[in-house]
Structure formats: structure tokens, C-alpha cells
Design goal:
heterodimer; A: mainly alpha; B: about 240 residues; 9 helices; about 25% strand; binds adenosine-5'-diphosphate; binds magnesium ion
Chain lengths: ~220, ~240
């Protein structure tokens, strides 16, 4: 009996691979956008712009304090009632990018704050402007602290991307849902789904661990 | 070159500078001493506005540092600042440390900046340490790189905040030697230090600071032989006897 199901599963492999491609597209795009926005927010959050800082802080708290599923439902099902219609794919990318930005913002700002204060004072004193201080003195040192948890966060976000299947995005998780209607062997179907996520995440886990070791060892302060 | 006109500074409720009046001429070497917490660091940190002041006027190289509208980056490039804890950039070699500001602030071509950096590092006795990272250098060597970092900007003023306090005793002299040479060349310098031998030898004037006030300021012969204030006498007897 398992043999038949296995064969059916193998036949739907192209379907799963399409789902995998969608998962990669949604997460990849969102991580890219989320990293850019997250660095920007994190830099502001570690600065002295009080109002902007407080605004970002409040937004991050709201996003971190509510389920991702609810956020994505609001974006997809509730915004249309106010006249804003989004396709499933852009809705998914916006929601996941925002989630990513919120987590990355916190990682980046605490990384920047871990750089000893004297570093900025030395940079300021030598006449570097704000951008130059950040670019040449603060960020290179902060990155040592930022990179390992950043890559770790990528893994969590890729797994969180499975939630976008709830609004109909054809990712691996949704491919699993649809397949299990035909092949009632859930363990087989979702075993495959899990394996595909693992295949993307495992290398990242390894990279994060390696970064942690290397940057930890060569940290000079 | 530097003029404090009744300068006041508060940290919250704490009155840290209480009506400072002081003029430092071009080419002058001023040593500032005083007990810990008396406001010496704050005093020299106001000069490049690492600490803004709340009252009074502060004119540096013709610029109104007390005026929040005065842009500071340009003036800061003319003022070298040497910290007690060196504050070298740990991710850069000695040469990279000293050439960063010339390249980025002065827009000097890299080659030219590196030639300059090598020359200045050689001058402070570190010609063989160009490509070492700060962590590979001793405290005395790090502080000399920090001085070189300031000098590479061809500053008009050099400020030193207890430059030898974090050093092992056997390294103090190599740093003071560099500072002596600088003083002989006519650099305008304010040095916060308790190295009274250095003060006697190179300072044009020595100032004593206590509780946010400049209590006494005089040429070293006078300052050490005939201190006017009781507090100065007490302080000197404490640091000169041990
Ligand atoms: N950033 C700061 N915030 C609050 N208080 C400060 C700050 N920096 C210095 N102080 C206080 O100001 C006073 C003078 O400090 P400082 O100028 O560092 O003295 P000194 O260099 O003579 O030891 C001290 O009482 C110190 O605790
Ligand atoms: Mg001090």
C-alpha cells in the first residue's frame, strides 16, 4: 500500500518543487527587503532621533506581539474592506518583509549598541560625518555581533513563511495540504514538506554556527 | 586659539563646569591637573563639542563652538583628540587607523595618505608596526598610534585626556617622549595629566581644577614653587609625595 502512495507522491514531485520555488521566492524576496528595511530601522533605533525611534519601537512591539497569521489575514482579508486590494503574493511578501524587518531591526540596533562608545567618540573627533562614522567605524564592528543571530533569524523567517499558505500562496506547505487530500498518508506527505524546508534551512544553520565560532574567536576586544 | 568665556556645563542637576574663563594662545602648552571628578575631561571635551555647553561662550580657532548652529565636522578635523583608553579602531591596522580620516575627511588620495601615515607612524617610533592590529600592540604603542592618528590631520590643536593613565609604568615615557617632541615643534596642546615632571618640563602654564572651577593657573615654576590656593597646595602635596 505504501508503495502505491510513494509512487503517487513521486508523481507529484514536480508540484512540490514548484511549491518549493514559491517558498524560496517569497522568503528570498522578503529577507532581502526585510534586511534592508531592518538595517535602516535598526540604525535609527540606535541613534538619537527620539520621535522616529519611539515610532519604530512601537511598531516593532505590535508586530512581535501579534501572531503572524493574524497580520497576514489583516493585510489580505481586511484591507480590501478599506479599498486596498492585494494579490496573495505581494500580500505575503509585504507581511513577511515587515516581520523580518522588525526582528532584524532589534538585532541590528543591539549590535550597534554593543560597539564601545569610545569608538564613536574617536570617529566624531576626527571629523568623520555621521554616515562615515557608521560605514567605516561602527558597522564593521557591529557586524561581528549582528551576523550570527541574523542568519539564525533567516532560518526562523523561512519557516514562518509557511503561514502564507493560509491566504492561498502556492508554497510547499500548501502543496502538502492539497496533496494530502489525494494521498491520505499524511506522514509521508508532510514528511516530504518538512524535508524540503530542512534542505533550505540546514545550510543556513551551519553557516550561523560557523559565523558564531569564527567571529567569536577573532573578536579583538 | 581657544577662549572660554564664563562657560557652564551641567549633566542634569550636576554642575560640572562653573564659569570657566581661559585663553590658550597658539603654540601654547597647557597642562590641566586636579582630582578625579573635578571636570577636567569635560573641560577639554567641550572644545570639539563632544560635550555641548549650556551657558557662556567658547571660541575655538575663530569658530563659535557654543552656538548650536556652528557646524562642527570641519573644526573637529583641525583638533586632534587623544583618549585615555586610546579608542583605536580594532578592525583596522595601525596604518588604516591613521589614514581613515585623511582619506575620508580631507579627501586625500589613498597613496598620498599612506605615505603620510607611514611618515607620521615613523615619527612616533612605529615604522615597523604599520600593518599590526591594535590588539597586537602594547598599550604604549597603541597610544602612539592614537597620537599619530591625530597628527595625520595636521591639526591646529591637540587635546590629551590622561593619555598615560591607562598605561603600565614602563610605557609611560615612550608616550610622553612623543608629546614632548610635539610641544617643542610648537603644537598648541592642552594636556590633562598628573605627570608633573612632564608639566614642569614642557608646559607653558599649569592649571589646577577642582569642583568644576579653575582654581589656579600659572607658569610651572610659579605653580609648583608658590601655589596660591590652599586646595592646590593640598593636591600637589598628595600627588608629589607618592
Ligand atoms: N556623561 C555624563 N553623564 C553624567 N555625568 C557625567 C558624565 N560625564 C561626567 N560626568 C560627571 O561629571 C563630573 C566631572 O567628570 P569628568 O569631567 O570626567 O571629571 P575628571 O575628568 O576630572 O575626572 C563627574 O562628577 C562625573 O561623574
Ligand atoms: Mg577624566
Amino acid at each position: 500500500m505504501w508503495g502505491i502512495y510513494l509512487e503517487q507522491l513521486l508523481q507529484s514531485l514536480p508540484f512540490f518543487l514548484k511549491g518549493l520555488w514559491m517558498t524560496v521566492a517569497v522568503s528570498g524576496l522578503s529577507l532581502l527587503l526585510g534586511t534592508a528595511v531592518g538595517f535602516l530601522w535598526g540604525i535609527v533605533r540606535a541613534s538619537r532621533r527620539r520621535i522616529l525611534k519611539a515610532l519604530i519601537g512601537a511598531w516593532v512591539d505590535v508586530i512581535r506581539g501579534t501572531p503572524f497569521l493574524v497580520q497576514i489575514f489583516i493585510l489580505f482579508f481586511i484591507l480590501p474592506e478599506f479599498g486596498v486590494h492585494l494579490e496573495a503574493f505581494p500580500a505575503a511578501v509585504i507581511a513577511l518583509s515587515n516581520l523580518a524587518a522588525c526582528f532584524i531591526c532589534e538585532i541590528v540596533s543591539s549590535g550597534i549598541e554593543s560597539v564601545p562608545h569610545g569608538q564613536r567618540e574617536a570617529a566624531v573627533s576626527s571629523g568623520l560625518n555621521g554616515y562615515q562614522q557608521l560605514r567605516h567605524v561602527i558597522l564593521p564592528q557591529a557586524l561581528r555581533v549582528i551576523l550570527p543571530p541574523l542568519v539564525g533569524q533567516y532560518v526562523l523567517l523561512i519557516k514562518d513563511s509557511s503561514v502564507v499558505s493560509a491566504i492561498g500562496v502556492m508554497d510547499v506547505t500548501r502543496a502538502g495540504w492539497l496533496t494530502v487530500q489525494r494521498i491520505p498518508q499524511g506522514i509521508l506527505v508532510f514528511g516530504l514538506v518538512g524535508l524540503l524546508y530542512f534542505a533550505i534551512c540546514y545550510p543556513l544553520i551551519q553557516i550561523s554556527g560557523a559565523l558564531e565560532k569564527r567571529l567569536g574567536r577573532s573578536s579583538r576586544r | 586659539m581657544i577662549e572660554f568665556r564664563d562657560v557652564h556645563k551641567w549633566f542634569g542637576d550636576l554642575h560640572v563646569l562653573k564659569g570657566i574663563r581661559l585663553r590658550v594662545a597658539a603654540g601654547e602648552v597647557l597642562v590641566v591637573c586636579g582630582p578625579s571628578g573635578s571636570g577636567k575631561s569635560t573641560l577639554i571635551r567641550t572644545i570639539n563639542r563632544l560635550e555641548p555647553i549650556q551657558k557662556g561662550e567658547l571660541i575655538v580657532d575663530g569658530m563659535k563652538v557654543h552656538d548650536p548652529r556652528t557646524p562642527m565636522t570641519k573644526l573637529r578635523a583641525e583638533i586632534g583628540f587623544v583618549f585615555q583608553q586610546f579608542n583605536l579602531y580594532p578592525h583596522m591596522t595601525a596604518l588604516e587607523n591613521v589614514t581613515l580620516a585623511p582619506i575620508k575627511v580631507r579627501r586625500m588620495p589613498r597613496r598620498e595618505a599612506e605615505a603620510l601615515g607611514k611618515e607620521v607612524l615613523a615619527k612616533v617610533g612605529l615604522a615597523d608596526k604599520l600593518h599590526q592590529y591594535p590588539a597586537q600592540l602594547s598599550g604604549g604603542q597603541q597610544q602612539r598610534v592614537a597620537i599619530a592618528r591625530g597628527l595625520c590631520m595636521h591639526p591646529k590643536i591637540m587635546l590629551f585626556d590622561e593619555p598615560t593613565s591607562a598605561l603600565d609604568p614602563e610605557m609611560i615615557n615612550e608616550v610622553l617622549e612623543v608629546m614632548r617632541a610635539l610641544a617643542r615643534e610648537g603644537m598648541t596642546m592642552i594636556v590633562v595629566t598628573h605627570e608633573m615632571g612632564f608639566a614642569r618640563e614642557v608646559a607653558h602654564r599649569v592649571a589646577f581644577m577642582d569642583y568644576g572651577e579653575l582654581i589656579e593657573i600659572a607658569p610651572p615654576e610659579e605653580f609648583f614653587a608658590r601655589p596660591q590656593s590652599e586646595r592646590t597646595r593640598l593636591f600637589l602635596s598628595k600627588i608629589l609625595t607618592h
